[in-house]
Write a structure and sequence with these properties.
four-stranded antiparallel β-sheet; alpha/beta; seven-stranded mixed β-sheet; 13 strands; single chain; 14% strand
């Protein structure tokens, strides 16, 4: 009887094992059906793999960022990143907050601005001026905390219309938003003009540098973006997991006034690592973003990011030349943006062909631009593939559909400053 019972148990276990193996095989097939991230040309999310990050991935996999006080390495990473960003953006007397991404950074920046305006200026009906070209999350964050959003149209160069800003700003405006490289078309707003308007109206500006924060400082652009150059700039957000090359889930918020987090935040006493004043919003957030961001800054430093940025621009110039030679219309955006916007009459056909070749992208109509198109982002690890495999696949489209009807207004110069390029 005992042997029979053992046999039954063994059979049951074998059955469970077979079911488990089939489930794992099914799961693996689902995972392998995904296209490679190396052919995702529509996203800014980094695909670079830092070997140090890969080696230590599991060490930080389940560590909560908010508990960094309890882990010496995380506390060190945050301290060193604070020094790095303060130096890069000349914000020595300010504060640096590591967040889960630019959306959280934006929400916090708007929250702090609202609280400050309420206490210091007695503003009870605050409004915020946001360009129509800004990422959708800015308007969403503003509305979530009860701010009146005044959407400012763009001018013929794609920048926020500063004259409209002058007309819309009033005594209840707590922030004017400018963008350092827009998501859709790669435009850089006139931050100096916005800074002057803010000073004239006793208000402040916030700069969305989610994309440009790891591009513009590492190129010789002549653009003004530092806290010392824009004296009304209260805050800036940067995405670490874009051109900072960190894993997903890393953002940076820089504040000019470091005391603001002490005034408008609360303390949590029950955390495993001890009490903490919550200068960020998320109570649970992966430590992988912080760790991978620090690992990249530590290994590459300013010199490395300069090399990467120069290579993005070189690739962009070569890509624009190859695409325009094939008869593909391209809008280059600002000369320092890491992406291009390509558009043709039958753009959907081009998108469909690229999809069959495994390229992750889609057609959309950018705000302020007349034609729908496809955004092509140039990222570390994709440079060679874009100039060879991608261009070859676009060439197949040209050959298949024989002739691309180029419009009279096609951008002829491979790379131009956006201020010299009309977009509508």
């Amino acid at each position: 009887m005992f042997i029979l019972e053992l046999d039954i148990v063994a059979r049951q276990r074998a059955g469970v094992h077979r079911i488990l193996m089939k489930s794992l095989e099914k799961l693996q097939k689902i995972i392998e059906s995904d296209p490679t991230e190396k052919k995702n040309i529509g996203s800014f999310t980094a695909i670079h793999t830092n070997p140090v990050v890969t080696h230590n991935l599991f060490h930080y996999l389940n560590k909560n960022l908010v508990d960094k006080k309890g882990y010496k390495s995380l506390a060190l990473f945050e301290k060193e990143l604070d020094k790095f960003f303060k130096k890069m953006f000349d914000n020595q007397d300010g504060a640096t907050i590591v967040t889960s991404g630019s959306t959280e950074s934006v929400l916090l920046a708007f929250h702090y601005a609202r609280e400050k305006a309420r206490e210091e200026k007695k503003i009870t009906k605050p409004n915020i001026l946001i360009p129509e070209s800004a990422h959708y999350s800015l308007g969403r964050c503003a509305r979530m905390i009860g701010l009146e959003v005044r959407t400012i149209p763009v001018n013929s160069e794609g920048q926020v219309d500063v004259e409209e800003v002058r007309r819309e700003v009033d005594k209840n405006t707590i922030l004017i938003v400018g963008v350092l490289v827009t998501t859709e078309l790669g435009i850089v707003d006139d931050l100096v003009a916005l800074d002057n308007i803010a000073k004239a109206n006793n208000t402040e500006i916030h700069v969305d540098a989610a994309i440009g924060g790891f591009i513009i400082p590492y190129l010789e652009t002549g653009l003004k973006y530092k806290f010392s150059q824009l004296t009304s700039m209260a805050s800036m957000n940067i995405s670490g997991h874009k051109f900072g090359l960190s894993l997903c889930g890393c953002g940076i918020l820089m504040l000019r006034d470091k005391k603001i987090t002490e005034k408008y935040t609360e303390e949590i006493a029950y955390l495993a690592s001890g009490s903490k004043r919550m200068d960020n919003f998320m109570v649970t957030s992966s430590a992988l973003g912080l760790f991978s961001m620090y690992a990249n800054v530590f290994l590459y430093g300013v010199r490395g990011y300069k090399q990467f940025a120069r290579k993005y621009m070189k690739t962009k110039k070569e890509l624009l030349k190859k695409l325009t030679n094939l008869g593909i219309d391209c809008f280059p955006g600002n000369e320092f943006s890491p992406h291009v916007f390509m558009y043709v009459d039958d753009i959907e056909k081009l998108s469909e062909l690229l999809e069959t070749k495994g390229w992750v992208q889609h057609v959309y109509k950018a705000k302020g631009f007349k034609y729908p198109g496809i955004r092509v982002v140039i990222k570390k690890g994709q440079n060679k593939r874009l100039l060879t495999e991608f261009v070859d696949d676009v060439k197949l489209y040209v050959e298949k559909y024989r002739k691309v009807h180029r419009r009279a207004h096609v951008v002829q110069t491979p790379v131009v400053v956006v201020a010299a390029t009309k977009i509508n």
